[in-house]
Design brief:
It contains 21 helices and ten strands. By secondary structure, it is α/β, with parallel strands linked by helices. β4 (about 410-415) and β5 (about 415-420) form a beta hairpin. The longest helix is centred in the middle third of the chain and has 53 residues, at about 235-285. The chain is elongated and about 120 Å long.
């Protein structure tokens, strides 16, 4: 009853979320369709193995009741050879089941991973704002491993176990119906006791997985922060943190193995009780002449043919719950709404670069309004700068232009076309972005630049690198453009990474350019080098610059001050200085800070 209540409760939770067990199973079965032939072969092989399992007690019964009493040695040898051949066939069938059956699960897992990866590529920015990378990866790896085991063993366990129980019941009943009913009456006790022990083991192993996750999290944190650890000489502190998690894991593992020991020893004891019941009841039946000795011997031999499938079904419930839970977590990702173009959206073609915001409002959630009534008009080919306090909404404005997020109200137009009327791919093809936080792939310099335009030739890549002032540095490397730069470009300096990202945009050659604090994390000398590359990059493009250092945008065609999600000031540098408002005060503060730095530098 406990199992039934738990299943009902789990199904109710899934029903509320729109994912009942039946619905999940229907989607799960869909992944078998490309492998129907292999599935049928696997089930056929499993069915034949189950049938071969019945042969041994049948032959045993025939020998004891007929062949041995009648001294038919020829048939004894023949049946022995037949049995040997069947066991050889069983060996080959088991190989097929273990090999091809598991491969079917792997094929399904690979398809699920491909589907999830493709789906992840089409999910909007807001999904990644709310989900940690590690957890997403866990759903694609750990969760889908349980799904593979269910995909392979699930149908096999259910079909073959049920079939084996039915066959064994029919066969045992043909020997003696009353002895068979006595044995089957013990099954409910086996189910209840096994489930109770299984539940305790499940909790212990869940605690183990939690402890293991803590170890992995600590390990990832320590390795990622190894440079900070070395800089502050805190290796002992990191070791203490790791050992703390390691000790929790040992304690959880100890409890899990204790629970596993109780489960297996308990189940072994229960199955032994079956043999005692058969021995005593069968002995009484034999004593009273209700069963022949050969039938009695065959019954004893055959009882394991019945107990095995029952235990398999009991153990399968845990595997089913793990597998279907993993598939449910997979479906949660797959059911996330992807980016979709508006009905009737057209290809943007090659845009000229006129950007217009009309009364744009935006909020990341209902309680947090980020932009309020923003109106901007950026003419094609102009350089427009956004400045203001951190968190004011400058980066959000930049993210709305490529349609990374949807506005709450208002319109954003490019060349007079509302961005919702353009396909996202064609829109983003016209926009180049250089950010403060540069992401580079663990690949060669050449391939990282080529990411700007995948069909670019090597000559075009070199030309883009020269324009970004990174070519000379690349040529000093032993492998030149084939040099692998490490995870996130760890083998490059901040300025080198920034110039690679600029080369990538040069290669893309878009009419619209967004520079989101592209030089704010660099020192003054490096900033000058980068700024020269950026100045060339801006020529002939509509450029939107988010700047922290106001000295870099003095020559912008127009500057807007963004504060608390609103445009509070707008004009040229000279006009804004004359107004002596927020921009003026920010500029004066930076000017005094720069003078202070120069004096400190001259004294040193």
């Amino acid at each position: 009853m406990t199992a039934i209540r738990k299943t009902a409760k789990t199904d109710e939770i899934r029903k509320r979320s729109g994912k009942t067990t039946a619905g999940l199973l229907k989607r799960f079965v869909g992944y078998y369709k490309p492998h129907k032939k292999l599935f049928c072969m696997d089930m056929t092989a499993s069915f034949l193995v189950a049938l071969i399992g019945v042969v041994y007690p049948i032959i045993t019964r025939t020998m004891l009741n007929t062949l041995i009493p009648n001294r038919n040695y020829r048939m004894i040898i023949i049946l022995g050879i037949v049995l040997l051949m069947m066991y050889l066939s069983k060996m080959m069938l088991n190989y097929f089941i273990q090999y091809q059956g598991h491969m079917m699960g792997v094929y399904m897992q690979a398809r699920m991973r491909s589907d999830m990866f493709e789906h992840l590529q089409r999910l909007p920015y807001r999904f990644y704002d709310n989900h940690e990378t590690g957890k997403i990866m866990s759903r694609m790896t750990n969760d889908l491993f349980d799904v593979v085991e269910l995909a392979h063993h699930g149908p096999e366990n259910i079909i073959i176990s049920v079939l084996s129980i039915v066959i064994s019941f029919i066969y045992l009943s043909s020997i003696n119906i009353w002895l068979t009913l006595i044995v089957f009456s013990c099954v409910p006790f086996l189910v209840v006791i096994s489930y109770s022990l299984r539940k305790k083991m499940r909790k212990a192993f869940r605690d183990t997985r939690t402890a293991m996750a803590d170890i992995n999290a600590n390990l990832e944190s320590s390795i990622s922060g190894i440079r900070v650890t070395k800089a502050y000489t805190n290796a002992e502190k990191e070791k203490e943190k790791f050992e703390e998690g390691n000790n929790r894991f040992k304690a959880a593992r100890k409890e899990s193995y204790s629970a596993m020991g109780r489960f297996h020893s308990g189940n072994t004891f229960i199955t032994d009780i079956f043999n005692v019941v058969v021995l005593i009841a069968g002995g009484l039946f034999l004593y009273n002449g209700q069963i022949q000795f050969g039938d009695y011997s065959a019954f004893i031999v055959s009882i394991n043919m019945f107990i095995g499938p029952v235990m398999t079904l009991i153990n399968f419930m845990e595997q089913f719950e793990n597998g279907i839970t993993g598939f449910e977590r997979f479906c949660e990702i797959m059911d996330e709404e992807t980016e979709k173009d508006e009905e009737g959206a057209v290809d943007a073609g090659e845009l000229e670069g006129h950007i217009e915001f009309r009364d744009v409002n935006y909020a990341y959630d209902e309680d947090k309004r980020v932009l309020r009534h923003v109106n901007l008009n950026i003419e094609k080919g102009k350089k427009f700068a956004l400045v203001g306090p951190s968190g004011g909404g400058k980066t959000t404005i930049c993210h709305l232009i490529p349609h990374f997020y949807d506005v709450v109200s208002g319109e954003i137009l490019l060349d007079g076309k509302e961005i919702h009327s353009l396909t996202a791919e064609s829109l983003r093809r016209n926009i180049g972005i250089v950010q403060q936080d540069i992401y580079l792939f663990n690949d060669s310099i050449k391939e990282n630049i080529r990411y700007g335009r995948l069909d670019a030739t090597d000559e075009e890549i070199i030309r883009a690198a020269k324009r970004a002032n990174i070519h000379d540095y690349v040529m000093t490397l032993p492998k030149g453009y084939d040099t692998v730069i490490g995870e996130r470009g760890v083998r490059l300096s901040g300025g080198q990474k920034q110039r690679l990202s600029i080369a990538r945009v040069f290669l893309k050659n878009p009419p619209i350019l967004i520079l989101d604090e592209a030089t704010s994390a660099l020192d003054n000398t490096t900033e000058i080098l980068i700024q020269n590359a950026l100045d060339e990059l801006c020529v002939g493009r509509t450029t939107l610059v988010v700047a922290h250092r106001l000295s870099t945008i003095k020559n912008a065609d127009e500057i807007a001050v963004v504060d608390d999600g609103q445009i509070v000031e707008q004009g040229t540098h000279e006009n804004l200085m004359k107004q002596q408002g927020i921009y003026y005060r920010l500029y004066q503060l930076q000017f005094r800070a720069n003078i202070g730095e120069e004096k400190t530098g001259s004294i040193s």
